[in-house]
From TrEMBL:
Gene3D superfamilies: Medium-chain alcohol dehydrogenases, catalytic domain, NAD(P)-binding Rossmann-like Domain. Its cofactor is Zn(2+). Belongs to the zinc-containing alcohol dehydrogenase family. Pfam families: ADH_N, ADH_zinc_N. InterPro entries: ADH-like_C (IPR013149), ADH-like_N (IPR013154), ADH_Zn_CS (IPR002328), GroES-like_sf (IPR011032), NAD(P)-bd_dom_sf (IPR036291). GO terms for biological process: butanediol biosynthetic process. Residues 202-332 form the Alcohol dehydrogenase-like C-terminal domain. Coiled coil: none annotated. This is ZYBA0S07-06040g1_1. One of its GO terms (cellular component) is cytoplasm.
Length: 387
């Protein structure tokens, strides 16, 4: 099978002779991949990894699987084959896949080293917070092979059917959109509220789309890079340059909420001390600061009375569940999240063969110019070159 796989540290490359995945458990689905997006996490595996991927010679504790493994966790495809117990999807259906894996999936892998099982999962899985699973892992990030490949196998419970009318390239964005959707949902964002996003990378931008879908009254984005501010503006956000107003920045931003007291929500999609502090400064009393960013191990200090005196809520959001995927698919299909905005996020579409040079390398060296690059194994649909 043709795929872009993680072979070992600093070695990701295209190969045409990787083993094709097959259905093992009765509730598995074989998917013919249409499009798969290159994510910052994939680049991170190359530059600083292995992070999620098994180390050379080791196996993944959830699945017992080794390297090499195709990368790719943001994807859409067409069902090619289903296991005997699958009822949720059928051959020919268009699907997206909720990529997180945990206790509830261990029955699929005889070589699992976890003591948790589908019948006796960890506390988080038992309570439905599968995104907080103690053993959380991902399709395409070390547990099982991902979708920079011709075929991928997923458990039925992770497959979400999409309408044949939803373009399969846009459907590949459901995964990053679900990261943002989950952040809104878990933090209690409601229609008519105001929000400021800190950072307009791919996740900040999908958060604009999710906020539009959720009926935000006002969406402002604070971003350092002009090119990214322009982009955020092109999909309907008001923008703010955090360097333009010196020590007054938080006050100026606060006024942009349209309310003297500040914004109802801050979504930190940058993860630096400056954005952490800024969010706390421009949110209103009872405002919510949501940390979406992944931080390194360095702690950040802050003055707790900033939270206490205005009864603010400081919270975070990790990953997604199938409910977020279903909600995003609905929002795309009923027009709440505009398809045109999503299409603008796709900066390039290439074949798997070209994927390392035109996808991975392009994003590593021209991060500011590209948002989302999609790769296809089978040339489903038209390709598009980055400008
Ligand atoms: N919580 C989750 O489940 C989840 C999932 C995926 C990604 N993430 C994380 O979300 C974050 C965003 O991801 P991304 O791919 O968009 O990253 P990115 O690095 O492309 O974007 C970050 C943006 O923040 C901007 N920025 C930096 N300092 C700033 C400042 N002081 N003020 C305003 N903007 C500033 C940068 O210019 C950049 O455009 C990362 O930390 C990523 O690891 C979290
Ligand atoms: Zn990702
Ligand atoms: Zn669990």
């Amino acid at each position: 099978m043709r795929a872009i796989a993680y072979f070992k540290q600093n070695d990701i490359h295209f190969s045409s002779d990787l083993p094709e995945p097959r259905i093992g458990a009765d509730d598995e689905v074989l998917i013919d991949v249409s499009w798969c997006g290159v994510c910052g996490t994939d680049l991170h595996e190359y530059l600083d990894g292995p992070i999620f991927m098994p180390k050379d010679g080791e196996t993944n504790p959830l699945s017992g699987k080794q390297l090499p493994q195709p990368l790719g966790h943001e994807f859409s495809g067409v069902v090619a084959e289903v296991g005997p117990k699958v009822t949720k999807v059928k051959v020919g259906d268009h699907v997206v896949v909720e990529a997180s894996l945990g206790c509830l999936d261990t029955h699929r892998w005889p070589k699992t080293r976890l003591s948790c099982t589908q019948d006796k999962p960890c506390g988080a899985c038992r309570k439905g917070f599968t995104n907080c699973c103690e053993h959380n892992g991902f399709t395409g990030l070390g547990v099982v092979g991902g979708a920079f490949a011709e075929k991928v196998v997923a458990g039925e419970r992770h497959c979400i059917k999409v309408s044949p009318d939803l373009p399969l390239d846009v459907a590949a964005l459901v995964e990053p959109l679900s990261v943002s959707w989950h952040a809104l949902r878990s933090a209690g964002f409601q229609k008519g509220m105001t929000a400021c996003i800190l950072g307009a990378g791919p996740i900040g931008l999908t958060t604009i789309a999710a906020l539009k879908g959720a009926g935000a009254k006002k969406i402002v984005v604070s971003e350092l890079a002009q090119i990214r501010r322009d982009f955020a503006q092109s999909i309907g956000a008001e923008v703010f340059d955090p360097t333009a107003h010196g020590t007054n920045a938080a006050e100026v931003l606060k006024k942009m909420s349209g309310d003297d007291d500040g914004f109802d929500f801050a979504f930190d999609c940058s993860g630096v001390k400056a954005t952490f502090d800024m969010g706390l400064a421009f949110t209103t009393f009872h405002g919510v600061c949501v940390n979406v960013a992944i931080w390194g191990h360095k702690p950040v200090d802050y003055y707790p009375m900033l939270v206490t005196c205005k009864e603010k809520i400081l919270t975070g959001s990790i990953g997604y569940t199938t409910l977020d995927f279903e909600s995003v698919v609905n929002a795309l299909q009923n027009g709440d999240i505009p398809l045109d905005d999503c299409k603008k996020l796709i900066s390039g579409k290439y074949t798997l063969e070209d994927g390392w040079e035109k996808g991975f390398m392009q994003l590593m060296h021209h991060k500011d110019k590209c948002i989302k690059i999609l790769l296809t194994p089978n040339n489903h649909g038209e390709l598009k070159s980055a400008k």
